[in-house]
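Repro:
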Amino acid sequence: MDLPDAPVPEEGFLVTHFLTVEDQGRSRAFYADVLGGKVLTQENPCIIKLANSWIILNSGGGPTLDNHGWETRCYMSDPDGYIIEVGQPSENMIALFGATK
């Protein structure tokens, strides 16, 4: 997967909007066709580069702690009950983005 202009910070963290959606195709069309995002992967998950941010669209399901070596994830709820996913990239993901330590 080629991720052009990946906003990989030298330090700190990157915020990506992860949305659990009912229909990935319908949501993909909205963020790409209506808002002008660039679709990088079609589905499971759908990744869209939108301006200077990333949107990930995926269907609901169980925990995704086994991410095939891409990242370690932790889930928590904010005070309003929204689920927040925090991920730490693996060396594989860092290499994919071309980031250096």
